[in-house]
Design goal:
By secondary structure, the chain is α+β, with helices and mostly antiparallel strands. It has 2 domains: 104 residues, Signal recognition particle alu RNA binding heterodimer, srp9/1 (2-Layer Sandwich), CATH 3.30.720.110; 137 residues, 2,3-Dihydroxybiphenyl 1,2-Dioxygenase, domain 1 (Roll), CATH 3.10.180. 17% of the residues lie in helices and 34% in strands. The chain is built from 6 helices and 15 strands. The strands form 3 sheets. It has an 8-stranded mixed beta sheet with strand order 4-5-6-3-7-10-9-8. Strands 11, 12, 13, 14 and 15 form a 5-stranded mixed beta sheet that branches. A two-stranded antiparallel ribbon has the order 1-2. β4 and β5 form a beta hairpin. It starts with 19 loop residues before the first helix and ends in a 5-residue tail after the last strand.
């Protein structure tokens, strides 16, 4: 669907579906669920919102420094206009001071969506606005994952999955305050997903042991409110599953077995920080 398409209708709760294959895929036996698929302008990947019923779920909100926390970073055409709309909706602000801060990547502010998920809005440069291929508020979208140890996360995303490192840098004080902190150290590794050139940021926080609140790692389940999930299209799924298991990574899907659909095979793995990563192997189309 186009980023300018009308929103997909949301099924009422009474029409939430259930599917034994999805139960195996997501390890949510007995659940009902509903999903909505969306696209943002100038973004090479889609976004999916999922809501699960009839299964236990956590509503714990992540702090930016919690290992396994994630956020979407929307670089926008007019930050002030976006912030004005956020204020109208009384959106919770994480950034210290409650206002946009100047950072090396532009003015930015961190907020929470209605489920507490972290969303950063950032002013695009004039050059990026000019170069944008589509109209709309969003000029670029990036994905952020907070990790306990970057070396461990890189073994998963770079070594196993082939993500490409673009740069590594240490954040300044303004970027700490952007993420709700006044002390500590933040190191960020920017990566690209091969094939679509989407940006993924691996972020490692180092904070004094006396810091409060302390970092709390996540063990995400797909039904948890705000649970981040990657959906990665892959080739050679069986070989990838063998490498993933041999490297000692865990799986969410029952028995670590892919489910089969007419349009492809799907299985969920778990990254070292508890983020859920779905491997999707599309079906081969008949010629």
């Amino acid at each position: 669907a186009s980023a300018n398409a009308l929103p997909e209708p949301i099924r009422p709760v009474s029409q939430a579906g259930s599917d034994a294959l999805v139960w195996d895929l997501t390890n949510t036996h007995g659940s009902r669920f509903r999903t909505v698929f969306m696209r943002a302008a100038n973004t090479p990947f889609g976004l999916e919102l999922s809501e699960f019923f009839d299964v236990p779920r956590s509503e714990r909100q992540a702090n930016a420094w919690d290992p396994g926390a994630s956020k979407l970073i929307f670089t926008v055409r007019d930050l002030d206009a976006v912030i004005s709309r956020l204020k109208t909706r009384r959106t919770p602000v994480v950034t210290i001071g409650g206002v946009a801060l100047n950072t090396p990547s532009g003015r930015a502010m961190l907020v929470r969506d209605p489920d507490g998920y972290l969303v950063e809005v950032r002013q695009a440069s004039s050059a990026a606005v000019t170069a944008a291929k589509a109209s709309g508020d969003v000029i670029e979208t990036a994905i952020w994952i907070s990790v306990a140890r970057r070396e461990r996360a890189l073994a998963f995303y770079e070594t196993l999955l082939g993500f490409q490192i673009r740069a590594t840098r240490t954040a300044n004080d303004a970027e700490l305050r952007l993420n709700g902190l006044t002390d500590g150290r933040l190191t960020q590794t920017m990566m690209s997903i091969p094939g679509i050139e989407a940006t993924v940021v691996l972020a490692e926080f180092a904070r004094p042991t006396t810091s409060n609140p302390a970092a709390m790692p996540f063990e995400w389940r797909v039904q948890d409110g705000g649970a981040p999930q990657f959906h990665l299209e892959v080739a050679g799924l069986d070989a990838l599953l063998e490498r993933t298991a041999r490297a000692g990574y865990r799986f969410l899907s029952v028995g670590a077995k892919p489910i089969q659909r007419p349009f492809g095979r799907f299985v969920f793995a778990i990254d070292p920080d508890g983020v859920l990563v779905e491997f999707v192997e599309p079906a081969v189309r008949a010629r």
